[in-house]
Amino acid sequence: MWRQVVNFPGTYQKFTATSMTGYAMARGVRMGWLDEGFRDTVVLAWQGISERIEDSGKVVDACFGSGTNADVQYYLDRPAVSGFDDRGGSMALWFTAEVLMLRTLSWPGLDAA
């Protein structure tokens, strides 16, 4: 899982950033834009995301959208959202769609998708 502030240990593991990054890497590999060296990272991102979606559709540790800010404290103070979240849920759906397409390529580690 990517953290709220990537290079700041102790910040929460962010559902939305992991969904977006996992989607981008999965799609990149599937389309041939990225090499297979990203496979393990995609699998780990998928495991992190799939563990944070409840059967009811609630997600754990999504983040509200934000613009850029030069002050790291701005990002450290942003709350995590747990529960129903349209934004985080839609990012997870995009990632899920790519995972399902990669499953057709018989990727190990994605069989539980």
Q: How is this structure best described in words?
A:
This protein is mainly α. The chain has one domain. The protein has four helices and two strands; from the N terminus they run H-H-E-H-E-H. The mean pLDDT is 86.
Proportion in β-strands = 5-15%
Quickly count the domains: 1
By secondary-structure content and strand pairing, the structural class works out as: mainly alpha
Compute the average pLDDT: 86
Count of strand segments: 2
Shape: globular
- Largest β sheet strand count, sense and barrel closure: 2 strands, antiparallel
Low-confidence stretches: none
Into which percent range does the helicity of residues fall? 40-55%
Q: In whole angstroms, how far apart are the ends?
A: 17 Å
Radius of gyration (Å): 14 Å
Order of helices and strands: HHEHEH
Number of helices: 4
| Strand order, largest beta sheet | 1-2
Quick synopsis:
The protein is mostly helical and 113 residues long. The chain contains 4 helices and 2 strands.
Furnish the topology, listing elements before pairings.
Layout: H1 15-31, H2 39-50, E1 59-63, H3 72-76, E2 80-83, H4 86-103
Antiparallel strand pairs: 1-2
Keywords:
113 residues; mainly alpha; two-stranded antiparallel ribbon; 2 strands; 8% strand; globular
